[in-house]
């Protein structure tokens, strides 16, 4: 299970952007979290991905309560969760070639050699091949870069995926393609998904269950 | 425009004249923007060329909204930059884009800066935050733009700024705020007010709804539509088909630098649907429709395949598609889908001569 209990979080203690938010995700299931921009849902997504320490509340990943965040999160927990953000350009190191970008998490975990073939296979899965993989972020389109960021999120075979407005900048066909990649991965690996977004039609089509921001927060 | 009348000869029959009149009128009103054979190529290192836009053509009339849709990298933003004279130095253009007697492609920078940008073309930008100066209030930016555009001083800029804010539905009470003090919606309106301030006959909106919440998309789109209804020509460049459906009169679909279909928006989004396989694929990708992606990726503009650039991804491609389909009657495709009026999904006489895997495609779409 991925459980968030009574999370309060933000950037200034006195003005949290998330107040008393709770949600539970069972393995292999998908949950759409629907809310307007600025409501705090991206902050909650970062908490769920262990990238932002909440001011109060607990996150439990597969029965283990999270105690560290960002690079202080224990490796086993950190690698159990893959995350994709809205703006690929803000989350991609501009110096890396796409193939290096996809393999980035492998370097951090020191599992380089045995998984190079895996990188190529993943790249194909997200539709990136050949010469494109040798390019740097400024040489590809937003859609191509987001494909690489999704592959990066999958490269450690996470049990949980957090997609924060993954397709908000993308055209309809790229959106459908990336969602299909996520769903194929989930079928194969039984991974759970938290998809955060503002597009009701998209989330309802994509996820098993969709909840509104106001339904999961105390302040609502 | 306000007085329609070819004089009716007193002796002439009244009825025929009345029935002919609208057609005459439509033809006699010149378009605000007339684009013919527009091409943009970028010269790259090593003598390579990238054909970002090839042979684009359309007319846009006052009061009309044309949506230019396509995937990112299809050339639609380059086309917009060409119309604004904002192409980088390594760009070569062909064709013409005539606005109010000025060919935007041939005009020099001085003409563009003094008479085109802001005056004849108002740009509603993709990211209002990037378009507004962070250290100055909205009022200061509007007034300065008025002074730049009109050379007026004193009370006039003040008045014009408030009028433009009003037209863009930007609340007067917020004029003295800085951009970071505005919500996303208000920042978008502030940017729109800037675009409106020179009273340009052509509004060019470049991805104005990207990243906005649905209700804000709808509001932004509706406001743009209102500006068209007030008599401006509106070119909406977007990958957001929902926004296009909401406000466009006509839709131009771009793929790999070419306009592949140009059609009436009602037909495009309605029962009959588009005829070009790429356009159909884009619509079918929507979550409210089949949610099925078009297989593959768009081609690199530097290495376009010979013939139809969509062929590697097209379920209807045949050998003939190795030759470039000409753009005729609003369409560039050798095997368009000729929907019948009653039932676009079932037309038995259609394509009996084509490849066997076509039937699979039909099942997916049904
Ligand atoms: S010309 Fe051929 S390949 Fe191109 S869209 Fe039409 S059928 Fe498909």
UniProtKB/TrEMBL annotation, chain A:
<dbReference type="GO" id="GO:0005524">
    <property type="term" value="F:ATP binding"/>
</dbReference>
<keyword id="KW-0067">ATP-binding</keyword>
<keyword id="KW-0813">Transport</keyword>
<dbReference type="InterPro" id="IPR003593">
    <property type="entry name" value="AAA+_ATPase"/>
</dbReference>
<dbReference type="InterPro" id="IPR027417">
    <property type="entry name" value="P-loop_NTPase"/>
</dbReference>
<keyword id="KW-0547">Nucleotide-binding</keyword>
<dbReference type="GO" id="GO:0055085">
    <property type="term" value="P:transmembrane transport"/>
</dbReference>
<dbReference type="Pfam" id="PF00005">
    <property type="entry name" value="ABC_tran"/>
</dbReference>
<feature type="domain" description="ABC transporter">
    <location>
        <begin position="2"/>
        <end position="218"/>
    </location>
</feature>
<dbReference type="InterPro" id="IPR050319">
    <property type="entry name" value="ABC_transp_ATP-bind"/>
</dbReference>
<comment type="similarity">
    <text>Belongs to the ABC transporter superfamily.</text>
</comment>
<protein>
    <submittedName>
        <fullName>ABC transporter</fullName>
    </submittedName>
</protein>
<dbReference type="InterPro" id="IPR003439">
    <property type="entry name" value="ABC_transporter-like_ATP-bd"/>
</dbReference>
<dbReference type="GO" id="GO:0016887">
    <property type="term" value="F:ATP hydrolysis activity"/>
</dbReference>
Automatic annotation (TrEMBL), chain B:
<dbReference type="GO" id="GO:0005524">
    <property type="term" value="F:ATP binding"/>
</dbReference>
<feature type="compositionally biased region" description="Basic and acidic residues">
    <location>
        <begin position="349"/>
        <end position="366"/>
    </location>
</feature>
<keyword id="KW-0472">Membrane</keyword>
<dbReference type="Pfam" id="PF00005">
    <property type="entry name" value="ABC_tran"/>
</dbReference>
<dbReference type="GO" id="GO:0015833">
    <property type="term" value="P:peptide transport"/>
</dbReference>
<dbReference type="InterPro" id="IPR003593">
    <property type="entry name" value="AAA+_ATPase"/>
</dbReference>
<dbReference type="InterPro" id="IPR003439">
    <property type="entry name" value="ABC_transporter-like_ATP-bd"/>
</dbReference>
<protein>
    <submittedName>
        <fullName>ABC transporter ATP-binding protein</fullName>
    </submittedName>
</protein>
<keyword id="KW-1003">Cell membrane</keyword>
<feature type="domain" description="ABC transporter">
    <location>
        <begin position="35"/>
        <end position="281"/>
    </location>
</feature>
<keyword id="KW-0067">ATP-binding</keyword>
<dbReference type="InterPro" id="IPR013563">
    <property type="entry name" value="Oligopep_ABC_C"/>
</dbReference>
<keyword id="KW-0547">Nucleotide-binding</keyword>
<feature type="region of interest" description="Disordered">
    <location>
        <begin position="329"/>
        <end position="366"/>
    </location>
</feature>
<dbReference type="InterPro" id="IPR027417">
    <property type="entry name" value="P-loop_NTPase"/>
</dbReference>
<keyword id="KW-0813">Transport</keyword>
<dbReference type="InterPro" id="IPR050388">
    <property type="entry name" value="ABC_Ni/Peptide_Import"/>
</dbReference>
<dbReference type="GO" id="GO:0005886">
    <property type="term" value="C:plasma membrane"/>
</dbReference>
<comment type="similarity">
    <text>Belongs to the ABC transporter superfamily.</text>
</comment>
<dbReference type="GO" id="GO:0016887">
    <property type="term" value="F:ATP hydrolysis activity"/>
</dbReference>
<dbReference type="Pfam" id="PF08352">
    <property type="entry name" value="oligo_HPY"/>
</dbReference>
């Amino acid at each position: 299970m991925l459980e968030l209990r009574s999370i309060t979080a933000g950037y200034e203690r006195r003005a949290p952007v998330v107040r008393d938010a709770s949600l539970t995700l069972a393995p292999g299931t998908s949950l759409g979290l629907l809310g307007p921009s600025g409501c705090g849902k991206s902050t909650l997504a970062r908490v769920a991905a262990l990238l932002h320490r909440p001011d109060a509340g607990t996150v439990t990943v597969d029965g283990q309560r999270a105690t560290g965040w960002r690079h202080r999160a224990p490796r086993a927990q950190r690698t159990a969760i893959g995350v994709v953000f809205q703006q690929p350009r803000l989350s991609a190191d501009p110096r890396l070639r796409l193939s290096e970008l996809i393999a980035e998490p492998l370097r951090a975990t020191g599992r380089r050699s045995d998984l190079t073939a895996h990188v190529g296979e993943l790249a194909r899965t997200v539709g990136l091949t050949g010469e494109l993989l040798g390019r740097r972020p400024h040489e590809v389109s937003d859609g191509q870069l987001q494909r690489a960021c999704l592959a990066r999120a999958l490269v450690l075979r996470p049990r949980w995926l957090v997609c924060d407005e993954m397709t908000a900048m993308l055209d309809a066909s790229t959106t459908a393609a990336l969602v299909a990649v996520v769903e194929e991965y989930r079928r194969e690996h039984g991974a759970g998904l938290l998809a955060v977004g503002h597009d009701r039609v998209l989330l309802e089509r994509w996820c098993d269950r969709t909840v509104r921001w106001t339904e999961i927060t105390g302040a609502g | 425009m306000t007085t329609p009348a070819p004089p009716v000869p007193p002796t002439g029959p009244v009825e025929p004249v009345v029935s002919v009149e609208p057609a005459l009128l439509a033809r006699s009103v010149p378009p605000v923007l007339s684009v013919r054979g527009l091409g943009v190529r970028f010269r790259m290192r090593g003598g390579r060329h990238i054909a970002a836009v090839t042979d684009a053509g359309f007319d846009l009339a006052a009061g009309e909204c044309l949506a230019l849709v396509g995937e990112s990298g299809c050339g639609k933003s380059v086309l917009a930059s060409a119309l604004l004279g904002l192409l980088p130095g390594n760009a070569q253009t062909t064709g013409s884009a005539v606005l109010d007697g000025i060919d935007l492609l041939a005009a020099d920078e001085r003409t563009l800066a003094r008479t085109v940008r802001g005056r004849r073309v108002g740009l509603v930008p993709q990211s209002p935050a990037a378009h507004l100066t962070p250290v100055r209030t909205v009022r200061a930016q509007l007034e300065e733009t008025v002074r730049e555009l009109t050379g007026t001083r004193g009370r006039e800029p003040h008045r014009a700024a408030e009028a433009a804010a009003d037209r863009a539905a930007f609340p007067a009470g917020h004029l003295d705020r800085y951009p970071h003090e505005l919500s996303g919606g208000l920042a978008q309106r502030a940017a729109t007010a800037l675009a409106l301030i020179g009273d340009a006959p052509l509004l060019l909106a470049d991805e104005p709804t990207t990243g906005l919440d649905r209700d804000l998309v709808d509001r932004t789109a509706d406001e743009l539509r209102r500006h068209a209804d007030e008599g401006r020509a509106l070119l909406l460049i977007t990958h957001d088909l929902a926004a296009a459906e909401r406000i466009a009169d006509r839709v131009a679909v771009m793929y790999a630098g070419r306009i592949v279909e140009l059609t009436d928006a009602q037909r495009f989004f309605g029962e009959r649907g588009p005829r070009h396989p790429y356009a159909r694929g884009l619509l079918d990708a929507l979550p409210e429709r089949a949610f099925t992606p078009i297989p593959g990726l768009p081609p690199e503009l530097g290495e376009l395949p010979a013939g139809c650039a969509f062929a590697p991804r097209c379920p209807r491609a045949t050998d003939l598609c190795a030759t470039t389909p000409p753009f005729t009657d609003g369409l560039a495709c050798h095997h368009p889908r000729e929907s019948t009026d009653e039932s676009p999904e079932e037309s038995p006489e259609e394509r009996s001569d084509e490849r066997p895997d076509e039937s699979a495609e039909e099942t997916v779409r049904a």
